[in-house]
Amino acid sequence: MAEKRPPGLAGGLTEYGDREFAQYLRRSFASAMGHTPQSLGKPVVGVLNTWSELNNCHRGLRELAEAVKRGVWQAGGLPLEFPVISLGEIFLSPTSMFLRNLMALDVEAMLRAQPLDAVVLMGGCDKTLPALLMGAASADVPAIVLAAGPMLTGSHEGERIGACTDCRRFWAAWRRGDLERATIDDIEGQLAPTAGTCGVMGTASTMACLSEAMGMMLPGGAAIPAVHADRLRHGERSGIQAVVLAHKRLKPSQIMTEAAFDNALRVLQAIGGSTNAVIHLTAIAGRLGIKLELDRLDAMADSTPVLVGLKPSGAAYMEDFHRAGGLPVVLQALRGQLHGECLTVTGATLGGQLAKPFVWPAWQDVIRPPHDPLQEQGALIALHGSLAPDGSVLKRSAASPMLLQSEARAVVFSSLNDLAARIDDPALDARPDDCLLLQNAGPLGGPGMPEAGYLPIPRKLTGQRDMLRISDARMSGTAFGTIVLHVAPEAALGGPLGLARSGDRVRLDAQRRRLDLLVDERELLRRGEEARPQPPVASRGYERLYRESVQQAQLGVDFDFLRHESLQSG
Ligand code: FES
Predict the structure, then answer these.
(1) Ligand 1 pocket residue status of 452, Cβ below 6 Å
(2) How far is the CA of 278 from the centre of ligand 1 (A)?
(3) Who wins on pLDDT, 535 or 222?
(4) For ligand 1, is residue 141 a contact (CB within 6 Å)?
(5) Of the candidate ranges 170-174, 212-216, 220-224, the one whose mean pLDDT is the lowest
(6) Most exposed among 151, 178, 354, 401, judged by the fewest C-beta atoms under 10 Å?
């Protein structure tokens, strides 16, 4: 139990063995920031800003932070902005996921150490909202999420395009030889034309929607484009509400309850959200002592329709979703299936929010009503079987229906390097009806579980648009195809995926939620004896901490010692 501390700058004093001296010194040094004693006596709202010149998605956060501060001042608080690590998805090696837990550690440590009565968590790019929520859940300081907002679309020859489903579609066309060099170059300049996060239902948009669904964000905040004035107004309101949270001492643990995670899983299904969200939600829940098992996600799959037609499941972009009313409309559509008793950062319950007068926006078709869904059944399913004893995930809504019940010969790649070396080799023994298996790209094998699960179609199979692909890696939420991910245990830990060999048969039975390697058990035992994989080790630094502590996909890829004490033994 954390020690109760006085509010404002009088709280969380630096240790000198003399509390009065510590207070005296703090007042003196706080005055150096130019604030009057009147300002310094107000509740302190931290404005946690992940702006960075190595994170294009967060380009708008400086201006947004000013809007937040306006709100905090208006409501009688003292806004103090501070940085933590920022993770720009495209600028990190080997992958941002490798660093998510480092950012979460940074967030938790700074929220615990600084004298904050509440905090506005500003982030957006894929791993940043998860890391902010993980850290805030552990520190349990009153917190409100403020997303950077999605970017607007660009244009190519009259067609609207945007990051990053279109990135993959055009790159696949270029690989097939369907595009000229000049065309792919022109497209490059149009895919990410403004500040903000990827404009489709990728991981960033999904995590923003789930933050709102869990009650950690003010209503309507997930979809407002980064460059829209509505985003600044939303920022200002978030600042005002942070002061309310500071007074009420309403904490993340009171908002992100087991029922709130169920709401998030339900919404994840309905928006056709990213598979990555399953890992992130599991990690956030784990910080609060809540076990989020794959079966829970799966139980909602058949009873939740896909309602939002954004890429990659549909054709629209986040800017369309915002115009259509955004997540509040989805929540209204799912109202009967959500836990209305959950508290939100508004101080009211979700049910109370949804009870307000509401008119369905019939003029739009981006968000479909439950009686006319985009797809009758939810987007994500969990698969178990001899190839994935601890589970795996498939985005059914972005898959080719005919491959959902299929059996195929495996073409196995033993690592990312092996994949890069052979995928375009004309001598590769691959046929259109094969499946591609990638090993050693999981949490340890990657390391960091890179978004390599969207294996490219071999160049020799020109014209082939989809193949069954299986790995222990992750996939960008913006990608599409029949792709089984997060296979656990991973190959580097001796999971059956690592025992598969080219020529083996694999069966996917999405209806029965099975993923099986059709190889005799004795033969697998023999291969296991022969292989005995040794997960790589690191001698120092963050990589050593990562390798010694990271857990498998079904536990959220969090570090074992960062999960809630009640879950650390299991
Ligand atoms: Fe930041 Fe896609 S690269 S959200």
Answers:
(1) no
(2) 18
(3) 222
(4) no
(5) 170-174
(6) 401
Bin 222: left if φ > 0, else alpha if -120 < ψ < 50, else beta: alpha
Which is the closest atom of ligand 1 to the Cα of 89? Answer: 3
Residue 393, phi then psi, degrees to nearest 5: -130, 145
Give the list of residues 6+ apart from residue 203 with CB closer than 8 angstroms, or none. Answer: 126, 274, 276, 277, 280, 476, 477, 478
The answer to whether the CB of 236 is under 6 A from ligand 1 is: no
- Cα 409-413-416 angle, rounded to 5 deg: 150
Beta carbons of 444 and 450 less than 8 angstroms apart: no
Q: Is 126 in the pocket of ligand 1 (CB under 6 A)?
A: yes
Cβ-count burial of 143 within 10 angstroms (0-12 exposed, 13-18 middle, 19+ buried)? buried
Instruction: Write down the pTM of the prediction.
Output: 0.96
Residues in the chain: 570
Ligand 1 within 6 A of CB of 451? no
Average pLDDT, integer, range 432-442? 97
Calculate how far, in angstroms, residue 245's C-alpha sits from the geometric centre of ligand 1.
Answer: 29
> Do the beta carbons of residue 87 and residue 100 sit within 8 Å?
yes
Sequence-ordered list of residues with C-beta below 8 angstroms from that of 472, at least 6 positions apart, any chain: 438, 439, 440, 441, 442, 443, 445, 449, 485, 486, 487, 488, 490, 491, 492, 495, 497, 553
Residues with Cβ within 8 Å of 299's Cβ and at least 6 positions away in sequence, in order, are: none
Is it the case that residue 3 has pLDDT exceeding 80? no
Token pair for 376: 């009758």
For tokens 């890391």, the residue is 131
**Residue 201 Cβ contacting ligand 1 at under 6 Å:** no
Taking the centre of ligand 1 as the mean of its atom positions, its distance from the CA of residue 523, in whole angstroms, is 43
- CB-count exposure of residue 184 (10 Å: 0-12, 13-18, 19+): middle
> What is the rounded distance in angstroms from the CA atom of residue 464 to the CA atom of residue 562?
44
Indicate if ligand 1 lies below 6 Å from the C-beta of 204: yes
| pLDDT interval class at 6 (50, 70, 90) | confident
User: Could you tell me the distance, in angstroms and rounded to a whole number, from the CA of residue 304 to the centre of ligand 1?
Assistant: 27
Cα–Cα distance measured from residue 440 to residue 159, given in angstroms and rounded to the nearest whole number: 38
For ligand 1, atom 3: residue with the closest CA: 89
DSSP state of 436: E
Whether residue 147 has its Cβ less than 6 Å from ligand 1: no
Ligand 1 atom with the shortest distance to the CA of 164: 2
Q: Ligand 1 centre from 371 Cα, in Å?
A: 33
Name the residue at shortest CA distance from atom 1 of ligand 1. 125
Instruction: Provide the pLDDT for residue 1.
Output: 44
C-alpha to C-alpha distance for 199 and 154, rounded to whole angstroms: 10
Whole-angstrom Cα distance, residue 360 to residue 337? 17
